[in-house]
Design a protein that fits this description.
Helix content is about 40%, strand content about 15%. The protein is an alpha+beta fold. Strand 17 and strand 18 form a beta hairpin.
């Protein structure tokens, strides 16, 4: 019997209502079999009484009796199927966290292989078999296992979401298209899927490009850090060398000072020792004469006393010590001279450092030309854009937003919003000038107050020898020499603007701790002609790197 039952197909033992193996199978008058509970429930809600398979109508409700033969056959088939499922389950893997479990398995849930969009269930290999063999279930749509299959149903009409409304950009069911989305642009999910998939491909390409750019940026940053580390090591080595030399200079100057003072003291001591030795010698002679006089005065020999008196009556010859003195040596000016000499040494060392610093900033030299669109109408610019001076006659020029209309100022064409840049300007022969950098958004109309708060980082010369940094308030500058050529250096990220006397390799002034958020433009102000006294032009000079 068991062998015979296993030769029968699975469809013969499945109830067409619950799609599972018969439980208490009953036969109705048309000959079709169903689970007793399934056909009873079906007839409880459907009148007249009709066969779910062949649609034959029974005007009186048939009496239902369990078909023991089919029940036994179904029981044997169920047992064989369970044994087969048990054997198959041992080979299949249980669902792990994050994997979709089979909805039919009881107890230990196996990993689902497919999900059915019609049944809204997920099936392992064993429970998937009916969908692969039964003709009615083969028409169901199977997909790779997913969770929350209920989310694929229209919440309003309880129908499968199988269309996409392009008008409202949402998934809809068939019933939605004739009700809520009537006359909308509706396409099958697959068609929209292909379009969106292509868009995702483009998005992924863009993301990959962004990833690549960021990887390159990481490499750039790492390279910058490496360069910074090299610069730091070089600066530390140079700094240690400089300070070691300075320390040695100070120690050497201190040692020389001490030796000078000690040498003076040694000479004083030697002189005093000579005087003392000479005095002690005279004391010794005087004591000897004193002894002889005392002995002679005690003599009872008249003749001997009279004969010796002439040689002993006077003291022995000695030096006149009245004007002899040992004066302490004068140390006045000794320390000052030593410090002055040290200062000269430090000054020479500082000059070397400034030469090195100038050479370094000159490595950031850029080509700068004047922008005629920004020039105040009385300014005269050379054809090559490298020179500017005050002409005294106002030219008829368009008053565009970029142009200065009152202050005699002109900006460069070039702007900078990152990194470092440096340029040099000849100021020879001028009694007044302005130089520096400004941010793009500065006021260009009417009277202007120059300060970092207003976007100006500049220095100027007034009245031939009055130099100031317009730091808000101004800082008066004391320079050892009149600059003939001024170098301007900017480190955007560091927030530094420094001015250098190129010929003297001296630092004039530095703005530090600046916060730059806009483009910076080189700034030139030749000042008024002053009756020809200040007629020399400002000249943007090519940078000749110092040797």
């Amino acid at each position: 019997m068991s062998a015979a039952s296993m030769q029968m197909t699975e469809d013969q033992f499945l109830c067409s209502i619950c799609l599972d193996v018969f439980t208490d199978p009953v036969a109705i008058p048309c000959g079709h079999n169903f689970c007793k509970a399934c056909i009873t429930q079906h007839w409880n809600v459907n009148v007249p009484y009709q066969c779910p398979n062949c649609k034959e109508v029974f005007y009186t409700r048939p009496e239902l009796k369990v078909n023991t033969f089919i029940s036994e056959m179904a029981a044997q088939f169920r047992q064989a199927a369970q044994q087969k499922a048990s054997s198959s389950s041992s080979e299949q893997q249980a669902a792990k966290p994050g994997e979709v479990p089979c909805d039919v398995c009881t107890g230990n849930k196996l990993k689902a292989l497919k999900s059915c969009l019609v049944c809204l269930d997920s099936y392992c290999e064993t429970h998937l078999e009916p969908h692969l063999t039964r003709s009615g279930l083969k028409r169901h749509q199977l997909i790779d296992p997913v969770e929350n299959l209920e989310g694929r149903m229209c919440t309003k009409h309880d129908k499968l979401l199988e269309l996409f409304c392009k008008t409202d950009q949402m998934c809809v069911c068939m019933l939605c298209t004739v009700l809520d989305h009537k006359n909308h642009d509706v396409v099958p999910l697959k068609e929209e899927y292909e379009g969106k998939k292509a868009e995702l491909g483009k998005t992924d390409d863009e993301i990959q490009q962004m990833i690549q750019k960021r990887r390159l940026k990481i490499q750039e940053i790492k390279h910058s850090v490496e360069l910074s580390e090299e610069d730091a090591d070089r600066e530390i080595a140079g700094g240690v060398q400089v300070f070691t030399a300075l320390k040695e200079s100070v120690e050497r100057s201190q040692a020389e000072l001490i030796d000078t003072i000690k040498e003076k003291q040694r000479k004083t001591e030697k002189q005093a020792e000579g005087f003392i030795e000479e005095l002690e010698q005279e004391i010794c002679e005087l004591k000897k004469r004193s002894t002889e006089v005392e002995q002679l005065s005690r003599s009872e020999d008249h003749l001997h006393l009279l004969q010796s008196f002439s040689t002993l009556k006077a003291a022995p010859p000695t030096k006149n010590w009245t004007g002899v003195r040992v004066s302490p040596p004068s140390y006045e000016g000794t320390v000052v001279r030593a410090v002055t000499q040290l200062e000269e040494t430090l000054s020479n060392q500082m000059k070397k450092l400034l030469e090195v610093e100038l050479k370094r900033v000159q490595q950031s030299a850029v080509d700068v030309t004047l922008d005629p669109e920004t020039a105040q109408p009385k300014l005269i610019l050379s054809d090559d854009g490298k020179q500017v001076k005050h002409g005294g006659v106002k030219k008829n020029l368009p008053d565009n937003p970029e142009r200065f209309d009152f202050c005699v100022i002109v900006l460069a064409k070039q702007s900078f919003s990152s990194g470092r840049f440096y340029y040099e300007v000849q100021v020879k022969g001028k009694t007044g000038w302005d130089l520096g950098v400004v941010r793009e958004s500065i006021n260009r109309k009417g009277s202007i107050t120059a300060s970092p708060q207003e976007g100006f980082w500049t220095i100027w010369l007034r009245n031939q020898n009055e130099y100031s940094a317009l730091a808000g308030p101004s800082v008066r500058l004391s320079l050892k020499s009149r600059p003939q050529k001024v170098g301007v250096f900017v480190d955007y990220e560091e927030g530094l603007v420094s001015f250098h006397d190129v010929d003297a390799a001296a630092l004039i002034y530095s703005f530090t701790g600046c916060c730059f958020t806009e483009k910076l433009y080189p700034y030139f102000g030749p000042c008024l002609n002053d009756g020809g006294k200040n007629s020399a032009p400002l000249i943007i000079s090519p940078v000749n790197h110092t040797e």
